[in-house]
Specification:
The protein is built from seven helices and two strands; from the N terminus they run ααβααααβα. With 206 residues, it is mostly helical. The longest helix is centred in the N-terminal third of the chain and has 34 residues.
């Protein structure tokens, strides 16, 4: 499928919004954890912060899909063009990468890079919905399923686009990249939380 420059710009904006919301939410949870440890009389509500955070990031993940849907479910470069299917993995990727003059002004380059960037915001937000080491895998699978549904919809709706397996692979890579960045970042945040001073029974810090 063809990726328009405006769609990439929307995806970058969505990434920035997801990052800002993620930073604010993480700081809030870190502050609440610090206050709970410094006070021996107040206990935090079990799972309240986590549930609120999942709701926030669930909403962000849905919003991050808006630019992706606007780009992928719009008509191609010409109305009435015939929709096609490209079912050979890596064929379009290798074909585009084989051109020595490939740059960001080339449609093929925008197509490759754009297909990755469009699902990075979704992957970054959706990664907060799961915990554990498999969050990247779960997010990648969710991105792959969603991308596959969109590619099928492109063909069924006759949007004049190429429904390509390479687009699914690139979209999946974008979702996995967003989740991977989140895992690295939350891992560092969790390490800082573990180093927070704990109050002693006498009210002092240990």
């Amino acid at each position: 499928m063809a990726i328009h420059g405006g769609g990439v710009l929307l995806s970058v904006c969505a990434t920035a919004c997801a990052a800002v919301i993620g930073v604010r939410q993480a700081r809030k949870e870190t502050r609440e954890a610090r206050e709970a440890r410094e006070s021996v009389w107040r206990a935090p509500a079990p799972g309240a912060g986590a549930a609120g955070g999942r709701a926030v990031f669930g909403a962000v993940a849905l919003l991050a899909l808006v630019p992706f849907l606007l780009v992928t479910l719009s008509h191609g470069y010409g109305y009435g063009a015939e929709s096609r299917i490209s079912a050979v993995p890596f064929r379009e990727i290798l074909d585009a990468s084989a051109h020595a003059d490939l740059d960001l002004s080339d449609v093929r380059a925008v197509n490759l890079v754009g297909n990755v960037l469009l699902l990075v915001p979704f992957g970054a937000a959706a990664a907060f919905l799961w915990s554990g080491r498999r969050r990247v895998l779960k997010t990648a699978l969710a991105g792959a399923v969603f991308s596959l549904i969109v590619e099928v919809a492109q063909y069924v709706l006759s949007l004049g686009r190429v429904s390509s397996v390479d687009d699914v692979l690139l979209n999946t890579a974008g979702a996995a990249l967003g989740a991977f960045l989140v895992r690295r970042w939350t891992g560092r945040t969790r390490a800082r939380r573990l180093t927070l001073p704990r109050p002693s029974r006498a009210g002092g810090r240990t």
